[in-house]
Amino acid sequence: MTRLLLVPLDDAVVFPGMSVTLAVDAGDEERVLLVPRHENEFAGVGTVANVSERVRLPGGAQAVVVEGLHRGVAGAAVTEPNGRLYVDVDERPDPTGEVPSRELRELEREYRAVVEEILELLGADSRIQSFLRGITEPGALADATGYSPDLNYEQRVELLQQVDIPERLKLALSFQRERLAELQIRKRIRDDVESGAEKQQREYFLRKQMDSIRRELGEDDASVIEEYRRKIDESEMPDAVREQADKELGRLERVGEQSGESSVIRTYLDWLLAVPWGKRSDERLDPQHAREVLDADHAGLDDVKDRIVEYIAVKKLRQERGIHEDKRSGAILTLIGPPGTGKTSIGESIARATGREFIRISLGGVRDEAEIRGHRRTYIGALPGRLVRALRDAGTMNPVIMLDEVDKVGADWRGDPSSALLEVLDPAQNHSFRDHYLDVEIDLSGVMFIATANVADTIPGPLLDRMEVIRFDGYTTSEKVAIAGGYLWPRQLDRNGLRAEEVELSDELLRTIVTEYTREAGVRNLEREIGTLLRKTATQIASGRREAPVRLDLEALREALGRQKYFQESAIRTAVPGVATGLAVTGAGGDVLFVEATAMPGKPGLTLTGQLGDVMKESAQIALSYVRGHAEDLQVDRSQFEEKSFHVHVPAGAIPKDGPSAGVTMVTALTSLLTGRPVRHTVGMTGEVTLQGRVLPIGGVKQKVLAAHAAGLTDVILPERNRGDMDEVPQEVRDAMNFHFAMTIDEVLNVALEPAPVTSAA
């Protein structure tokens, strides 16, 4: 052990072989120990240095020039009588003249190669390379790293304290490798910029520079990771979802920002955080207020309004009485009816009445199952399904989500979206809905789903079974007039820049528009006609041809809308034998069909035209067979079936028609043709018939009766087993029409056909 004067170096390190000038008074000492010091903490290893020269600085201060010799491990410290601090030093000079081991030679070669690459990238003076080549001892070669200005204080101290030469050379090599990697990245980015890098490359360059700065400051991607961790902690995710989020965050932390996978992970975390976990709208559970809102927004639709009020009332009672919320009690309402009857718009009213957010998802033409369940993350550009996006847009877990046009969902090689909806619309399952992209369970039990469709026939049976169906069967003429006056007229006034006091239209003219210019179950075309009328009126006022206020009359109505579009044509069509008025339901609501039958000489047979569906074709065959089999009962001469071909036609544009509801109409038309008895022009009929002449029940009674009423018919023949369906028909329609219920085809014919002509006796 050697006792040497301790010379502390604040935030500085002197390596063996270095020569420096220090502003200290070394007295008469020939050798000293230079020990790095940071915030009053000394390093355990210092540099034994030789005092080669003593100088006096301007101002009289003492300074010495010292040359580092070798390392020394500091021991016990002693303060001498002269007040100076001395330490016992275990000197550790590097061995010289020894043959280095194979490992040490390989480390030395690799170190020189890395340093030469760094000097080449920096464009350093060749004298530096010559200086390095002149260093033959491995320990001194490692200490040469201490000359680099890129090493910070901690790295220099770490290198000084490494007494073992192989370990010291490994540490120096790792520092030089980091330096080389950083210089290579900078050179590559600089070359890209100089060669005209575009925006993405410039962003990459800036990001790499930022990474370099972070490394220089001892930082990493901590800010991004911490931001995600903060958001996850603040989110109200369920435990299982939080576990998945933490797992993905750990992956992001491991791969780093430089990895191409980081953007995929960050997108996934962004979507996971976008779901409003635990956030719910404060529902207004006031049945009376809900009914007032629904009545203010929509006329009629009592069935829908009653169901919504019932839902709110039940939920209010359960909440007041502390009954546990049942996840299987979600409301899945399906509104089925013709276009223009207010199915879509009532969803917004329901949301407003209950205080929830409203989101609409249009499913018309959707053929990809991933639109509902989302894409799996293995695909490029994968995204969550529409339901997750709807929750994100709503910002709550209990919105009103309207699934519009659910009957128009398709299916192809990409899957069957209607099958994916089975889980969504099943209250027993949707509390644990799993999106393919997020791959975590999402509770949809708080969502009020409202589906809309024009017809129920194209909705798959299993899907329809999960729905609570409420039918929109259209409006009566009086209801349309009320809707036009209370809702459509004010809205169109506003859209056409008119004020209520500038244009006046009587209820009689509104009724004229309804009956003579529209023939629909809803009010969409009615609003278009009103818009046309007001648009032309606005043009006249704006051009100065008329002055406000304007009172519209029938002449102005005809001038704006043109000639009458719809007529009561049943009297004309059924004036000759062989034509019967039938009632049917299409995707646009109830409709009146005129079934025509004729016979002509030729090979016996039956021709059917009018784009009939398979069921309706069978009805025509059954009708002809029944008439032939009961010719005597129907007072039909059998000779009329010989050498004659029959033709049955159902003209209604190019609309495909299906049954089963036209059997009695076809029997009546054929009987009318063969007996010469015309069908009463005031009678419409619907019902299916068997080969034995029994009249079978049908569906869509309300829509068919409303269509008959709109067409001016006063008598409707219905199957006896549909008598109970009359409760659905509005009272004003029941008061205006006569209904005949038939069990057999004979009862139908007695009502439908005109009396047989009386022939006088010869």
Roughly what is the average pLDDT, rounded to an integer? 85
Indicate how many domains the architecture comprises. 6
Quick one: CATH superfamily of the largest domain? P-loop containing nucleotide triphosphate hydrolases
Q: Show unreliable segments.
A: none
Tell me which CATH architecture of the largest domain applies here: 3-Layer(aba) Sandwich
Shape call: elongated
CATH topology of the largest domain: Rossmann fold
**Share of helix, binned:** 40-55%
Q: Which radius of gyration do the C-alpha atoms yield?
A: 46 Å
Strand content: 15-25%
The top-level CATH class of the largest domain is Alpha Beta
Number of strands: 25
Head-to-tail CA distance between termini: 159 Å
Q: Major beta sheet, specifics? A: 5 strands, mixed, barrel
Structural class, by secondary structure, is alpha/beta
Biggest β-sheet: strands ordered side by side in the sheet:
1-3-5-6-7
**Count of helical stretches:** 26
Blueprint of the fold:
Layout: E1 2-10, E2 19-22, E3 31-38, E4 41-42, E5 45-56, E6 62-79, E7 85-92, H1 102-122, H2 126-133, H3 138-143, H4 153-160, H5 165-194, H6 199-216, H7 222-234, H8 239-255, H9 261-274, H10 287-297, H11 302-320, E8 332-336, H12 343-354, E9 358-362, H13 370-373, H14 386-394, E10 400-404, H15 417-424, E11 433-434, E12 441-442, E13 448-453, H16 461-465, E14 468-471, H17 477-495, E15 503-504, H18 507-517, H19 524-542, E16 550-551, H20 554-561, H21 570-573, E17 579-586, E18 589-601, E19 605-609, H22 614-629, E20 644-649, H23 663-675, E21 683-685, E22 688-689, E23 695-696, H24 701-710, E24 715-719, H25 731-736, E25 738-742, H26 745-752
Parallel strand pairs: 1-3, 8-13, 8-14, 9-10, 10-13, 15-16, 19-20, 21-24, 24-25
Antiparallel strand pairs: 1-7, 2-6, 3-4, 3-5, 5-6, 6-7, 11-12, 17-18, 18-20, 22-23
Helix pairs in contact: 1-5, 5-6, 7-8, 8-9, 10-11, 10-12, 17-18, 17-19, 22-23, 23-26
